[in-house]
Specification:
It holds the Pfam family DUF1304. Helix content is 80%, strand content 0%. The chain is an all-alpha fold. The relative contact order is 0.15. The chain has helices at residues 2-25, 30-34, 47-69, 73-97, 101-122. The chain starts with a helix and ends with a helix.
Length: 123
């Protein structure tokens, strides 16, 4: 179960690296295809805001990757739980305020990771 939890952590980190790239470097190109409901004329004026948001996604990815590199198993779990919780909260907030799809793409994988980590620790 711990191995599956770590796989989910890697998956969530990869997703957030993708979000970083999309928001920081491809906001006015590829992001237009991903965020189809966002008005096309707003991509250029919101480029700086999107880049800032992408940077935060990078911090989440870095924290998740860091959690996998920690040698102490207990601290590894605490750090992973913290960053997965941050992702889950951001995903839930995004689903409430922006798009329900954010829950499936962002919050759900993080919540699954949290559940698997806790199950592997307590079973």
């Amino acid at each position: 179960m711990l191995l599956i939890a770590k796989f989910i952590i890697v998956l969530v980190a990869i997703l957030h690296i993708y979000f970083l790239w999309l928001e920081m470097f491809a906001w006015t190109t590829k992001a237009k295809k991903v965020f189809r409901k966002f008005p096309e004329d707003l991509f250029e004026p919101t480029k700086t805001l999107a880049a800032n948001q992408g940077l935060y996604n990078g911090f989440l990815a870095a924290g998740l990757i860091w959690s996998l590199l920690i040698q102490n198993q207990e601290w590894q779990m605490y750090v992973a739980l913290f960053f997965l919780s941050c992702v889950a909260i951001a995903g839930i907030y995004g689903a409430i305020t922006a798009s329900k799809k954010i829950f499936t793409v962002q919050a759900l994988p993080a919540l699954i990771g949290i559940m698997l980590l806790l199950l592997s620790h307590f079973l």
